[in-house]
Amino acid sequence: MGLKKQYGQLFLTFFKIGAFTFGGGYAMIPLIRREVVERKWIDEKDMMDIIAVSESTPGAFAVNSATFVGYQLGGVFGAMMATLGVTLPSFLIILAISFVLKQFEEFRAVQYAFTGIRAGVFVLILSACYSMYKQCKKNWFSYSIMVAAFISVGFFNASAILILILCAIIGFCFSSIMARKDSQ
């Protein structure tokens, strides 16, 4: 495939993802996975790595994901095209809505629509969680970290950033110890 065509496909693919996904980055995970894995642009393992890196780096998850996929496929210009593609729909939609939302927010139909959108976003996030769960190693350590992180953030309002850093450090240490044991 020619470079121009590849850049155009990156832009259009991420434009579609940005235009038809409500609820932010986590709700986009199933669509991003379907679009880039089924096209064989990225394999499942790389997709999981992109999700992990996108979550742990500053910035919006969807933008980070698009940037990483675009860079992997087309270098710096590929990253720019994918990032522009995923952000442009949101910008245009928010620009259009900002002109009319105040006038229509009291209508019951609009309130119902937002209720439906929230429910749909919840399902997309659950789908992303399930998909990530299927890809992760399942052992006592993984379950312990998951439960501890959930309780810390969900019930004790611990900093999600701090918990993410601690989980990364603990996971690295545990993996290093297990690798040493396996090599002995």
TrEMBL record:
It is a multi-pass membrane protein. It comes from the Bacteria. One of its GO terms (molecular function) is chromate transmembrane transporter activity. It is found in: Cell membrane. InterPro entries: CHR_Transporter (IPR052518), Chromate_transpt (IPR003370). GO terms for cellular component: plasma membrane. The keyword Cell membrane applies. The chain crosses the membrane at residues 6-29, 77-100, 112-133, 145-174. Keywords: Cell membrane, Membrane, Transmembrane, Transmembrane helix. Pfam families: Chromate_transp (PF02417). Belongs to the chromate ion transporter (CHR) (TC 2.A.51) family. This is Chromate transporter. The lineage of its organism: Bacteria, Bacillati, Bacillota, Clostridia, Lachnospirales.
